[in-house]
Amino acid sequence: MLQTEIFCSGTIVSARVIASPATSSCIFRIKQRQASIIGEGKLSEYSAYCHLQLRRDKTQVILNVIFALLFMPFLIKIFVVALIFFRCLFTTDSKAQDIKLNEMMSSNAWSLADEDGDYEDWIELYNAGSNTVDLEGFRITDDPTSMSKWVFPSVTLSPGDFLIVFASGKDRTEGELHTNFSINIQGETIILSNATGQPIDYIPPVEMLTDHSYGRLPDGGDDWITFINGTPGFSNADGTPYVAPWDTLSFSANSGLYNEPFNLTINHSDPETKIFYTLNGSNPDTSAILYESFIPIQNRTQEPNHLSSIQTTASNASHPYHWIAPDGQVFKGTVIKAQSFLNGASASPIYTQTYLVDEDIANRFNGLPIVSIVTDSLNLFDYDYGIYTPGRAADEETYGTFWWGHGNFFGKG
User: Cβ distance 2 to 36 under 8 Å?
Assistant: First the structure.
């Protein structure tokens, strides 16, 4: 099986063909050694090299290609002719080749909000050239069988500038740009075509973590890396490259029910790293609590009712079901999220543990199974976006007035 690459304007498309319309030349190379093949497969010891000067006269180009193909085996001739004709020969406006797919995020939780306040997938374009380009008629798609799935309106991109397109499925071409598709977090190919329908760039499929982005470094360059924080609308040089975690954490006690207090210790496999942890469900970073000694795990019932004292229904609701402050102290568990870091970068995954302590813990839940779902407390109770509170949406009547009241809980998650 022959699997090769094709580079059109520096973009890998499918066979071993290298084209550079900016310099009016096309080098295509069929090298039959396994080192030159993407994927599996071998060829014989045959090698063919050809350098063709691309001229604006397509007839001359075709003659040059035919001459070069005389030295190739028959099956390879057919394969290369099809690819070169459709991927190289008919590449038009060289300025279009300067427009690059520069960065994308397929799982956006907090990176960038759109005009509706939603956190949607996004794609960043970058003009790597020296001329302003009007993107009218350019196409972008996540489906190779529908290359014109979403078409750009007239919007100009100046040299060195960035353009954000939300891949939200909202399909908007006025003001903020939104495609009619979203990006699969498990990975799918994103293809950019110019106004004539010629593919000029693509993003390969890559599985992403939430709020991590995949982008070129440097901007418009050939190398792609993962960033732990996206830089939408700004240079990827400002991003922090993602490094796969290598450190592992171990806890002296597993999550569960305990009838007496104890001291929890955390160990790590790499002694050079430092462990940071949180107690409010948020993800730790280097501003969290530094682990220096054991963490006491105990019954926390007598601690103040901070979260359960937050009103969770709108005060102007006309129905009779209103929030009532708890009568007495509420039973509380301890949630720990821990992660190790080295020189400010994460060295381990995030570890989450939940502990419930009571001297009569065996009877407290009447034998019912317990599931611990952990999230940042602000996701539930923050004034601006906490989904359990009336919050800002109630005060500003963002979603209108209803008999059951209004609040943040009407917002999209």
Answer: no
CB-based contact 7:38 (threshold 8 Å): no
- Using a CB cutoff of 8 Å and minimum separation of 24, what contacts does 395-401 make? 401/316
Amino acid at 394: A
First-to-last alpha carbon distance for the chain, in angstroms, is 47
Structure tokens at 106: 């397929």
* Interatomic CA distance for residues 131 and 118, integer angstroms: 33
| pLDDT confidence of residue 283 | 93
Q: What is the dihedral of CA 219, 221, 225, 230, to 10 degrees?
A: 20
213-216 and 199-203: which strand pairing? unpaired
Q: Which class for 229: exposed (0-12), middle (13-18), buried (19 or more C-beta within 10 A)?
A: middle
The HSE-up count of residue 42 (CA atoms within 13 Å, CB side) is 2
Is the pTM higher than 0.70? The answer reads no
Q: Which of 42-46, 162-166, 326-330, 402-406 has the highest mean pLDDT?
A: 162-166
Q: Is 68 helix (H, G, I), strand (E, B) or coil?
A: helix
- Number of helices (H), then strands (E), in the chain: 5, 26
- DSSP 8-class letter at 228: S
Strand intervals (E) in 42-197: 47-53, 99-105, 121-127, 133-134, 139-141, 150-151, 156-157, 162-167, 190-193
How far is the CA of 78 from the CAs of 29, 54, 65, 70, 400, in angstroms?
A: 14, 20, 12, 11, 64
Looking at the DSSP assignment, which residues form a beta bridge with residue 99? 127
What is the spatial distance between Cα 261 and Cα 239, in angstroms, rounded to a whole number? Answer: 43
DSSP-derived 3-state class of residue 210:
coil
Q: Which of 409, 403, 301, 405 is nearest to 360 (CA)?
A: 301
Please state, in angstroms and rounded to a whole number, the distance separating the CA atoms of residues 55 and 384. Answer: 60
| Tens digit of each residue's pLDDT (9 = 90 or more) over 253-296 | 999 999 999 999 999 999 999 999 999 999 999 999 999 999 99
For residue 172, report the phi and psi dihedrals to the nearest 5 degrees.
-125, 135
Question: What are the residues facing 50 on neighbouring strands?
Answer: 28
Residue with tokens 């006025």: 174
Handedness of CA 307, 308, 314, 316 (dihedral sign): negative
124 is written with which tokens? 């960043």
Residue recorded with tokens 């999220």: 337
The model's pLDDT over 182-241, given as tens digits with 9 standing for 90+, comes to 999 999 999 999 999 999 999 999 999 899 999 999 999 999 999 988 999 999 999 989
